[in-house]
User: Fold this.
Amino acid sequence: RELALITGAKIFLEPEEKNWPEMMRRSHIYGEFAAMSSLRNVRVKNLYDARVLKNEGHLVIVDSYYDKITSYYLEKPGMEWLISPSDPYFQVAKWLTSTDTEHLPDADCLVLLDINRETWNSYLKMRNRERDSLPGFQESFSLYKNYIEEAALKLSRERNIKLIRFIQVKAPPKT
Assistant:
């Protein structure tokens, strides 16, 4: 939000947990794939809407590129908290995330927030999401961080997307 204010950019934010689709908030009932795909719909809409505005000449910021990179780490060890390989929809999730990587709009620039565990924990505490307590999520910090970095680097090389690594510290947004 702060970056959009400073630059005058249009911004597309992933909704906060209280505004998530019910299927996302109640994955214990509907399953991880339903949860994954329900919030995916919101993020995908943001990517396409952002592309329209960009093509009209606007500067646009999208705060989540999650769906473009998930295919790179979905099957990796330690990511079972996202969707277990034993989930009946796991193969569908693999196909969907690969298709998203291939076909969702590419960014002109990708910003990788490099964050340490202490800062990450403080942000988790601030956002207070129930899903942050999924078994295996918090324990996978180091693995997940490495997977995200690898995915961002790979996508930026494959798609010729400028990559900016920003070392994130706990500070007010304006800082």
